[in-house]
Amino acid sequence: MKDPVRNVLFIMVDQLRWDYLSCTGHPSLKTKNIDKLASRGVLFDRTYVQSPICGPSRMSFYTGRYVSSHRSTWLFVPLPLSERTLGDYMQANGRDFSLIGKTHFLPDLKSIERLGGLKDPEKARYAMEGGYENIARDDGLFGSGPIDTKYARYLREMGYKSPNPWHDFANSAEGPDGEILSGWHLRYATEPSRVKDEHSETAYTTDRAIDFLEDKDDQPWALHLSYIKPHWPYVVSAPYNSMYGPEDIPLVNRDISELENPNAVYNAFVNREESKEFMRDEVREKVVPVYMGLIQQLDDHLGRLFDKLEELGRMDDTLIVFTSDHGDYLGDHWLGDKELFHDPSVRVSTIVYDPRPEADLTRGTRNEYLVESIDLIPTFLSALQFPEEQEALEGRSLIPLLHGEKTQWRELVFSELDYAFHADVRSDLGRSVNECRGYMAFDGRWKYVFWEGLDPMLFDLESDPQELLDLGKSAAHMDIRTQMREHLFHWLRNLKDRITVDNKFVEDWRETNIKIGQW
What is the CA radius of gyration of the chain? Predict the structure, then answer.
């Protein structure tokens, strides 16, 4: 019987591409602290998120379930009250899962009100935060109006006086006459933010995590440390704003042939403003170096955190996971931001460090299995030796892979998109809000994308690893599309929807006092 790990540290960053780390081959970035974690653990750089946009992706991380199962399909769609989260699973085993940073969780207020509210204040406190113990939640991404978050109050205490210091200082630069140059405008990306590095969102989040570790002393703990960056606004404090230049960025991955007779949904996203801007070399040459600076800043502050773990002796008894909720196109495929299913958007790198001796065989290796974000909850529960609830969880524990055990692994990964909130895309395609769904199935070679009511997409990553040739209309590939479509719908038909009773209840049920069909 293996000993359980004592603590869990679940680090998530926002909008980090799988290939923007030096350990995954970036030619200019030097992410030495993240690389060191990879050298002590296993790098799963073929991790696919269950939706390539923040909210639904995170809800899959937090529930261990696909988007069609948990039904929080986009940013402003609350997670249904019936869904259990990572925090709920931990509390059922006597352990809080604490939160510092971003979650995008929205409570299901309609269901709460329908049931008469949450009467128990203690349970209500957790339910309103997705099951987490809120230490310092900060979702970021505010407009320019007044805000009163913990981070905003901190900035004011540090002398950044404003109704909204998040926007006016942390995510804006300053003009020659003291005017605010909003970070929402890409043209100001190379200017330093108006806060010192030690007061940035990344530094603040790291400081709160270090405080948490010191306060816990020798108590077992579990922490979700969730950074807002390198998600836009693309603005960073000095010296990170000028650490990289246009000469440091990889060549853009796109080809003019992608725009010739394109898939309709892809073309609608190409026509969006963020895509039009990232088509311009001027924008990429300003923004991508700053995106890299944000990653460098993250790596440096994670170094402080890892040093504290070493100092406290916690590297000896803590399972650490590092990952991202999705990627960023940065102009690849003529697109900006994320949401579609090319690798720059839907693929992330996951690093798992298991301190136990059983993991010694795999340390410093890269694992090529197809991994999904829903695999993390089973991994945490397995590492802590807490029971898994098989009726709901749809992922698989990574512990057997970390321990070098032979195991039959999945052959396909899946992802989903609800693009209904984009009125311009709906208009371009003539779709109603109930007709805007897309699904991806990927088997390691063939990536198939099904768009409801519209032509599919298909890429052969063996012959076309850059995903530049869409075979969605190729007559020669009709059989492949049919096969991949069947894989997709087999998966949809087998999602776990019987979650209000456990599997044992079903297996043990007997028709005891009801006699049906007897003579």
Answer: 23
